[in-house]
Amino acid sequence: MEKKLKEVLLICVDEHNIETYLSLFSPALWPYLHVLNSEDEKEYILQCLNRKKRGVPTFLYLIYDANTNVPVGAVQIRLPHENKGQLYCWINEEYWGRVMCNLRFLKRQSITLMKQI
């Protein structure tokens, strides 16, 4: 039986770790997230980073196993006026069934983000 991951570390997505993000963003995830390919996702991430540089509040993080420092997925809280779906979160299929994310933490971050607007 595999050990469940209970503690996560969130690392802000930036120009230095986009390739880590994309390496986890496998074709198995694309249909669930309505993405056609990794190039489309990369373009989306670059747009997010450009908005952040312009001062638009951005909450986009890689999710790491806090015990092993291994990346397992990503989470984004989107602004309500920009997207219908405000929570964008995915876990690489290698970790399906093993990752438990602290939703209270995400909720606090979401509230903080919304207060910045």
The biggest beta sheet reads:
4 strands, antiparallel
**CATH fold-level label:** Aminopeptidase
Shape: globular
- What is the assigned CATH homologous superfamily? Gcn5-related N-acetyltransferase (GNAT)
Structural class: alpha+beta
**Whole-number total of structural domains:** 1
CATH class annotation: Alpha Beta
CATH architecture: 3-Layer(aba) Sandwich
Beta-strand percentage range: 15-25%
Which consecutive residue ranges, at least 5 long each, have pLDDT under 50?
111-117
Work out the helix count. 4
Average predicted confidence as pLDDT? 80
> What's the SSE pattern?
EHHHEEEH
- First CA to last CA: what distance? 45 Å
Could you give the order of strands across the largest sheet? 1-2-3-4
Helix proportion range: 25-40%
The radius of gyration over CA amounts to 14 Å
Find the count of extended strands (DSSP E, 2+ residues).
4
Can you tell me about this structure?
This protein is α+β, with helices and mostly antiparallel strands. It has one domain: Aminopeptidase. It has four helices and four strands. A four-stranded antiparallel beta sheet has the order 1-2-3-4, sandwiched between helices. A hairpin with a 4-residue loop joins β2 (59-65) and β3 (70-77). The longest helix has 16 residues, at 38-53. The model is unreliable at 111-117 (pLDDT under 50).
